[in-house]
Amino acid sequence: xxxxxxxxxxxxxxxxxxxxxxxxxxxxxxxxxxxxxxxxxxxxxxxxxxxxxxxxxxxxxxxxxxxxxxxxxxxxxxxxxxxxxxxxxxxxxxxxxxxxxxxxxxxxxxxxxxxxxxxxxxxxxxxxxxxxxxxxxxxxxxxxxxxxxxxxxxxxxxxxxxxxxxxxxxxxxxxxxxxxxxxxxxxxxxxxxxxxxxxxxxxxxxxxxxxxxxxxxxxxxxxxxxxxxxxxxxxxxxxxxxxxxxxxxxxxxxxxxxxx
Length: 260
Ligand code: PGA
Description:
The protein is an alpha/beta fold. 43% of the residues lie in helices and 14% in strands. The protein has helices at residues 18-33, 49-56, 82-87, 98-102, 108-121, 133-137, 141-152, 182-199, 202-207, 218-225, 242-256; strands spanning 7-11, 39-43, 62-65, 92-95, 124-129, 164-168, 210-213, 232-235. The longest helix has 18 residues, at 182-199. It is globular.
């Protein structure tokens, strides 16, 4: 049995209105209050961070952002600083998401600067890695993950990794309804843990929470969350509806006390 507390994170992406965000946050907060031994996080769009924070209240659900800029506050039109996210109550930021990599053109060097700036100022990082379908088909999954890990975590110390959560998100499974099989997910997670043991040390590898992301739904959550190397989920589409997100939290509660 592992001592890693599962984390169920909702990535709301560029969705919700102020009213629907507040309503969703209230429902998640109520459900999470009963979720023993599971951490819950929601990541709304920037404009709704503050109303969502207020709606979450003291129910124990953490607040996260979906992006950040690496420079301190200053003349960077349209960007948001780490200090601002901390100021409005964020504990986490999602970095390296495939939509930032493949739609917005972020590379590992940019992602690494964001990782470093966040960790330096006390913002925890959810670092996403994952291969494209053609990379998997070409047998390059592990090489792609290795490159994203080396690039994203360049210069990050073993101590700082206590403030990092990894998310394995095969790009072909995001928003497509296609989920990685339990074998594919566990093998990628095991590979990431092996990488951490080699680059850092076995303790770091053992402690690291590695979430799975990509079309996680209530009906597949239990089989994914029960895998030995899967420590939670980064949920997109299904995090936008309480009646889908809450059962995923419950699935994590069900496996959190069991031998995996
Ligand atoms: P999905 O998104 O659950 O809608 O596939 C996951 C993610 O992009 O984090």
